[in-house]
Amino acid sequence: MISLGFISAGSIQAGGAGGFDPLLPGLILLLPLLGFALNGALALVSGRRSADRVRNSIPEEDHTAGSVPLTHSLPTWIGPGVLLGAFVLTAINFVRLLGVELTEPVIRSYWSWMPTGTLSVDAAIQLDQLSMIMMMVITGVGFLIHVFSVGYMKEDPGYPRYFAYLNLFVFFMLVLVAGANFPVMFVGWEGVGLCSYLLIGFWFQDREKADAGKKAFIVNRVGDFGLLMAMFLLFATFGTLDYGAIFAAAPDTLLYGGGIVTAITLFLLLGAVGKSAQIPLYVWLPDAMAGPTPVSALIHAATMVTAGVYLVARASVLFALAPVSAAAVATIGALTALFAATIALKQYDIKKVLAYSTVSQLGFMFMGVGVGAYAAGVFHLMTHAFFKALLFLGAGAVIHSMHHALHSTHKDWDAQDMRNMGGLRRFMPITWITMWAATLAIAGIWPFAGFFSKDEIIWYVGTAGAFSGLYVVLWGIALAAAVLTAFYMTRMMIMTFHGPNRTGEPESRHLHEAPLNMTIPLGILAVLSVFGGWINVPGSVRESFFGGFGVLPMSDWLDRWLAPVTQSADAVRASQLGAYADVAPVGGGHVVWGAIATVMALVVVIVTARYFLSQPIQPAHEDGEPDRGIGKVLYNKWYVDELYDAIIVRPLIGVSRWCWRVIDRVLIDGTVNAVGSVSKGVGWFGSLFQTGQVNTYAFILALSALAVLGAFIF
Amino acid sequence: MTGLLDAMGYADWILHALIWLPLVGMAVVLLSPEERAKHVAFGWALGLFVLSLGLWWVFDPDGPLFQLTSMTEWIGAWGVTYALGMDGISLFMILLTTFTMPVAILGSFNYIRERQRAFYSLMLLLQVGIVGVFASMDLFLFYVFFELTLVPMYFIVGIWGGERRIYAAVKFFLYTALGSLLMLVGILYLYWQSNLAFGFASFHYFDLLGTPLTLTEQLWLFAAFALAFAIKVPLFPFHTWLPDAHVEAPTPGSVVLAAVLLKLGAYGFLRFVLPFFPEASAHPTVVLVMITLGVIGIIYAAWVAAVQPDAKKLVAYTSVAHMGFVVIGIFALTTNGLQGGLIVMISHGISTGALFLILGMLYERRHTREINDFGGIAKVAPLLATALVITAMASIGVPGTSGFVGEFLALLGTFERYPMLAFLAATGVIFAAYYMLPMVQTILFNPLDREENRTMEDLSGREIAVLSPLVGLMLLIGVLPGPILERMEPGVQAIIEWVDEGASGALLDAARDRGTEPGLGELPVRSELSELGTSALGTSTYDGTRRIHLFFRDEG
Questions:
Q1: Looking at beta carbons, which residues of chain A come within 8 Å of B452?
Q2: A525: pLDDT confidence band, cut at 50, 70 and 90?
Q3: CA of A201: which chain B residue's CA is closest?
Q4: N or C: which end of chain B has fewer CB within 10 A?
């Protein structure tokens, strides 16, 4: 029914392609899907073999020694290979798009997905500046993480299954950002959630990890519910679910600040909050660290969790029309940025620090898109993909090394607890130096990538104007969160890489740098973490620092690049709220505040580093948990999980049990059984008429039918 | 393909063959040796399925609403006819039935050990009733087939069921028989009224349509019909027979029960209740009650499902939740709602059927249905685990599977008219994850800490053959539901139009005006059986003209 020809033959719908002729866009999506199919088949073969071993009590195969079976050697090439193909194809199209002024998205429609009669949804993808840049990040960073995974996961018996899931994830992520209408986007949206579920619970025989996957899925479904409702409202309002038609009609159809657009955007926000782990639905993301670390890098840092930011940017015109919702986006972002940062202060698990850091940085992105600085939000999304992927991969290299070291003497210490690390820079110099690059980037130190993106967000929050009192507060929160970021990241780096080693003497001899297939991705991401921000240096800053030298030709490049996507939102904002201010709430221009922020961050980094270097740190088993004060509260993550358990999970289970035992069994079945007993009594009376004569029965039946019929008529 | 089928005269005999050939198969099974019975039954059912596939080609999506129609006098004095026919809705219900049967039979090879001949002949008898229901164009005939499904199911549960099989079978029988009896009274009353109004006695669908009834009469008749169908669906609070029946029924019984038998109820609403009683069906209070019960079913059943220790009971409750989506889709009376409800019916048939099959396979290995008795199964049975995960995802409506298309459209269609109720119903999406994922985790994931589980075998070749078509269909319908939606659309539109305009009486006038349109001659006109009919065409009486609307799609 679907011939392979559709890869290239999708019908072009939109006019105004402006000379942009994408090369095989369908193949970009299809390649990872193909990788999934191949790796999935290999996974089933190897899974069957491994199952036989379990049944016969033979230990798992050891692939480090001797010949490696095809099921484990092929995924090494298929998994990263399809990603490389997808990346190259995306890059070719990206370069092509660079050369043209594209004002309308190019839409490729492959088949009619849900033609009901009144609804028409096509399986269609849309290529424009926003989807292309997202696809660049997904396939580019995705490829690096796939390569890293080869080294990281090679010894795992589930290696082919791992790559099957990872390929499938990339496919769904591409569907999410490339979909040309809300339902197709939703396919990607829930699809990535499914892959996330499978990958978090990748080591499913560990109950805790399986629980974490389940939690992620269920919490995300709350968000998905919001997205569904938003789609229903959109359809009821516009009669279509295509991006193009909705966004074109929105400014004329919807009343600025009206109830409908506010409801639509608040439901969209609920979806975004779920996927992007914002308050109050962030609780799944820290638990998601149960998955393999490259998964955390790809899904729970660089790509999937930014889907909410993408969604707000994509629906920017709707959010521009709903100032209350936009303010809600910014407020939730700010609160999350600060809240998650406080928790990160007291975590000892290296991945937990990074997890809360991710939640916090996603909060920054929400602030950006919430105040209408969509390009700034997407900018931070991109730089964050570089440095946070690097941090997670670096953490992965550390854990990998720690695991080997602890394994060598069968020490049962936690390989992820930073208190068991220390001084690792001597053993892992490349990991160390690249992670510092990422740390300086996330801390917002000039001229690292994170400085530009975070600075731009904070600046726009401070100058957004509307609800001015609110935005001044958010601006202050953003600055505070930025300071905390510098603090917890430096703490993590010092505890992990500096000071004396605490792993133990015999173990430390087994600490080692990661192999090349892991360090090369680190190196590339480090370069991007340093220079990635230069694509969008604000014009004002550039003039002050470089203008005379002409060093950076790319000022405001990303802002200009995304302008066709955000222009109608920008127009609505400009007409309703006016331009952004020139000075920060307490005075001072962009350049001044950029300088203040970077100096502040630098001071925090230095002071924190000195503090933790002077502080004696005990290995985890000697140290124990903080047992009092705010430290204990932060260590226990403000007890939010416990709170949710008490006010949502347990009451829900209680009500469910009550429904079953009381309503179903006592009320309904009780009634049914009572009726049954009565009819038994009647049955005894009736048995008097049971003569065994068929004609008597027929007579009685006819008589009763007539009686009932008569009752009806008269 | 179409040419070949034409040459065979396929369209003329296929519906009769699909109804009566299972009966022949029943005889063949009874005559075959005990140990061969299952193979014969499977071969027969598979052959019927292959035979039924031609329906896809002979059904013309742009043709008349009802196709493959035929009519023979049965009990002339009462106006009972043996009339068959199908629209796009029946088409997929019939295909779902013929598809489910061989799958269910193949899935029961190891489960059914005793009295195999009897068992498999009852399965085929069941098929007679079910296909008959979906193909009947005569209300009397429909009722006969509808009741016929009760008998084999009663014995399947009562003889091959679990420990409490007698209780479950009797409960099933009494519940459904009670509903059907009231419906019988309703049918007779409707027949009586039609006779009074039109001057001739007929149970034919088209002759009963448009029977003039006061709103009060409609409401009473609606109640009588709706109770029977609501029990069958089952709609909260008439659902408690279902968990018992499912838990006690042998695997193939559960599969057929979930996949097809529950659809009889929803089909009854669509085919009869809405068109016969349009004013009652569109009555705001009635609609509100029905949709509210559907929404309660969605949420309540999801909650109850989540706390079931018995896997089969859990899946049984999820059926109630899924059928809630069907009911809200139907009573929202929008194109999207009805289309969605119908896709849920198909999707639920496939995914819940697959769930029961998988649970049956687990039961055959471990002789337990307790969820907590499992754990870590994915390690020893990766294929089974893959099938269960995909099926679970289809069941909870993850996009890309059939479940999503159905639930999305049903909710969308409901939202168009009842946003607040759709809002509540949509929370079912969350609760679906709440009941399904813990079960999947507890069975497939977690430590493999029991010796009995550690030595469990993965799927056999036969089991792969059972599950792969189901899994394939879940994905295919999820990605490409278009061909199904397009074929069902005329039927859906006709129902909506009929109810909308029938409620205002406008449709009857419109139908009367169109009475002289050409083309009537090709169709089996009921009037041949009536004295009045031949002369009544185009006159002010209802006869003759009333059936036109449903024969012809509105081409104006």
A1: none
A2: very high
A3: B445
A4: C
State the DSSP H helix or E strand holding residue A121, giving kind and residue range, or none if neither.
strand A120-127
Q: Give B543's pLDDT tier (boundaries 50, 70, 90).
A: very low
Shortest Cα distance from A530 to chain B (angstroms)? 39
- Which is it for the CA torsion A424, A427, A428, A429, positive or negative? positive
* Nearest-CA distance A342 → chain B (Å): 30
The upper half-sphere exposure of residue A152, i.e. CA atoms within 13 Å in the direction of its Cβ, equals 30
Flag whether the pTM goes above 0.95: no
pLDDT score of A466: 64
Is the CB of residue A601 less than 8 Å from the CB of residue A482?
Answer: yes
Nearest one of B11, B8, B23 to B122, comparing CA atoms: B23
**Alpha-carbon distance B415 to nearest alpha carbon in chain A (angstroms):** 7
Q: Is B383 on the interface with A (CB under 8 A)?
A: yes
Distance CA B304, CA B434 (A): 11
pLDDT of A699 reads: 56
Would you say residue B139 has pLDDT above 90?
Answer: yes
DSSP B242-270: HHHHHHHS-HHHHHHIIIIIHHHHHHHII
Residue B335 in contact with partner chain A when CB distance is under 8 A: yes
Are A50 and B379 inside 8 Å of each other by CB? Answer: yes
- Give the tokens for residue B314: 């859990």
Which of A110, A116, A165, A260 is the best substitution to test chain B (most B C-beta atoms within 10 A)?
A116
Interface contact A206, partner B, CB < 8 A: yes
Contact B248, B157 (CB under 8 A): yes
Please state, in angstroms and rounded to a whole number, the distance separating the CA atoms of residues A596 and B325: 57
Q: Give me the half-sphere count of Cα atoms (radius 13 Å) on the Cβ side of residue A216.
A: 32
Task: Give the Cα separation of A317 and A249 in Å (integer).
Answer: 10
B457·A55 Cβ contact <8 A:
yes
Q: Averaged over B365-384, what is the pLDDT?
A: 92
Instruction: Determine whether the interchain pair B304/A652 forms a contact, defined as Cβ–Cβ distance below 8 Å.
Output: no
Rounded alpha-carbon distances, angstroms, from residue B353 to B94, B101, B349, B362: 16, 11, 6, 14
Compute the distance between CA of residue A356 and CA of residue A354 in angstroms, rounded to an integer: 6
Interface check for B303 against chain A (CB to CB < 8 A): the answer is yes
Q: Give yes or no for A649 touching B (CB within 8 A).
A: no
The lowest-confidence range among A302-306, A509-513, B83-87, B372-376 is A509-513
**B49 vs B102: CA distance, rounded Å:** 8
Interface touch B415/A187, C-beta < 8 Å: no
B446 touching chain A per CB within 8 A: yes
- pLDDT above 70 covers what percent of chain A? 89
State whether residue A180 is helix, strand or coil: coil
Cβ distance B454 to A54 less than 8 Å, yes or no, reads yes
Helical pair A323-344 and A468-497, crossing angle rounded to 10 deg:
30
H or E element, residue B82: strand B80-86
Name the residue among A115, A217, A669 with its Cβ closest to that of B482. Answer: A115
B447 to chain A, any CB pair closer than 8 A? The answer is: yes
* Residues A415 and A478 sit within 8 Å (Cβ to Cβ): no
- Between chain A and chain B, how many beta carbons pairs sit less than 8 Å apart? 190
Which residues are CB-contacts of B152 (< 8 A; sequence separation ≥ 6)?
Answer: B122, B123, B125, B126, B129
Q: How far is CA A8 from CA A29, A108, A122, in A?
A: 12, 9, 16
Nearest to A126 by CA among A168, A181, A89: A181
Dihedral pair phi/psi, residue B162, rounded to 5° = -80, -155
**Is residue A110 within 8 Å of residue A10, measured between CB atoms?**
yes
First-to-last CA distance in chain A?
Answer: 60
The alpha carbons of chain B give a radius of gyration, in whole angstroms, of 23
Tell me the per-residue pLDDT of B351-364, one tens digit each, with 9 for 90 and over: 999 999 999 999 99
pLDDT at A167: 96
Q: Is A114 close to B409, i.e. CB distance below 8 A?
A: yes
